[in-house]
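# nightly structure sweep
# worker-07 picked up a monomer target from the shared queue
# config: single-sequence mode, recycle default, output format = structure tokens
# input follows
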Amino acid sequence: MMVAALTVVAVLAVAATLLWRAIHARHMHLWLGSYLRRRVPRREDGPVHVMFCFVDHFEPAWGRVSLETQRARVDRWCSEYRQLAAAHRDADGRPPQHSFFYPEEEYLEEHLDKLAALCADGYGEIEIHLHHDNDTEANFRATITRFNELLHARHGALSRDPASGQLRFGFIHGNWCLDNSRADGRWCGLNNELVLLRELGCYADFTLPSAPSDTQTRTVNEIYYATDDPQRPKSHDVGERVRVGGSASGDLMIVQGPLGLNWRDRRRGVLPRIENADVRRSCPPTPSRVDAWIRTAVHVEGRPDWIFVKIHTHGTQERDMDTLLGEPMHAMHEYLESRYNDGNRYVLHYVTSRELYNIVKAAEAGKTGNPGQWRDFMLPPPPLVRTAARSATCAPC
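# output follows
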């Protein structure tokens, strides 16, 4: 009996060690406790409104490819996304909306002209993405200011704040490293990045979730205000939840997508995979994933009947385009429009990142009813007029 007991103890110790190593190898120790402690709110009477937002780290030059390949990537999106989105509608009669977070360091006028034409036709909006390393405050200010003005003046992107006239933008940080959050200090360099983004006109950050990266925050599945500590990195690790009746605080709103554990798809049949709202060929948008995103119920505190689903991708990688522009995405939208748009239990709204922000602010201000009416609550739509894309000629549309 003693030998058997010792054997069981030894097996359990080995299993615990292996589990600990697996958790740390995927940096799950950073957020798993917060995930397990979080409680999803109870369903309210009446329909739950689902704001569905697809953000894209859109990088035509990914892999340091030729200009010819870059053009082929952008042209395919201009052609096939129109066909995809035109086949679907939400409760407000709008097609799916795609938020193109375009990297400053990959700017080419012809690419942005084409995307601006796509957005001018009602299929999305353009925001800012940036990869940088060992940066300085002066260079960061100059880079963002220059890119803001270029996107607005040349391509009709970005909105002006009605009160201040300042250009406003949504932001996704390259390599997930917002506010110098990588442990080795690479791919940023600015411990005061949240302050700088606020001062430069950023209305919200859409980088997270970043798991399994070590840049993932302790806070998960929330919309919150982060306050910068310029002496330390990763100040957005925690923050103040956006709530009904509250007001803006700190330096920057952080909008997170769903993060959790996928027990349906387990590694070696044992350990659950991380559900991080990433969509690509290797993790297609299946009905079970859509259900998991909805169940996560990211919301403004005090308004659980308005939930926000922000998923993401890297849209210009050839291995994933058949998924992002083909049948898997059609099937996802068909499932959303049948399962989560019946008008009784659920109402579906396709939104851009700017519209998501506006609806969050409307919830904070205590607005009620159909959230679709608050898409332009604080920030108006960007110009995105056809003259801004006068030189655009997409591949056969």
